[in-house]
Amino acid sequence: MSIVLAWWSRFAFLTARTDMAVELAETNALFEALKADKNSLRAEFAISTCRVEKSLEQLKRKSTDQVVELDKRAGVINRLKIERDALKVELIELNAQLEALKQRPGHRAA
Fold first, then answer.
1. In angstroms, rounded to a whole number, what is the distance separating the alpha carbons of residues 109 and 102?
2. pTM, entire model
3. What is the dihedral of CA 82, 85, 89, 92, to 10 degrees?
4. CB of 9 within 8 A of CB of 3?
5. Of the candidates 7, 11, 9, 30, which has an alpha carbon nearest to the alpha carbon of residue 19?
6. N or C: which end of the chain has fewer CB within 10 A?
7. With 0-12 CB in 10 A as exposed, 13-18 as middle and 19+ as buried, what is 40?
8. How far apart (Å, rounded) are the C-alpha atoms in residues 92 and 98?
9. 34/27 Cα distance (integer angstroms)
10. Any idea what the Cα angle at residue 20 is, between residues 15 and 21, rounded to 5°?
11. What are the CA-CA distances from residue 31 to residues 24, 25, 38, 85, 91 (Å)?
């Protein structure tokens, strides 16, 4: 009986040890799976961040180009306004000269 009892104790010990080893292996496998998922999420986040940064750089370039174009157009508009104002002054002067000529004696109306 004592041999059976010793054998049974040894069997129970080895079974418990095997169960612990299986649980430990399962825990390690779960840990490794979680680690792999975490690394995958990090990689996806890095790729996403890179895409956002590239888009941001493109938008900055586009915005800068648009500002430069607007400045050029503003310069052209200001130059045209100055020319228009100079032409208005010239027109006023010519109208004044015309009126002066009309006021001269001996001027015939057309």
1. 8
2. 0.53
3. 160
4. no
5. 11
6. C
7. exposed
8. 10
9. 10
10. 95
11. 10, 10, 10, 79, 88
Backbone angles phi, psi at 108, to 5 degrees: -100, 135
Question: Distances from the Cα of 72 to the Cαs of 6, 51, 65, 86, in angstroms?
Answer: 98, 32, 11, 21
Backbone torsion region of residue 73, taken as left when φ is above 0, otherwise alpha when ψ lies between -120 and 50, otherwise beta: alpha
The tens digit of pLDDT for each residue in 2-51 reads: 776 666 676 666 676 676 777 778 888 888 999 999 999 999 999 999 99
By residue count, the chain amounts to 110
> HSE-up of 102 (CA within 13 Å, CB side)?
8
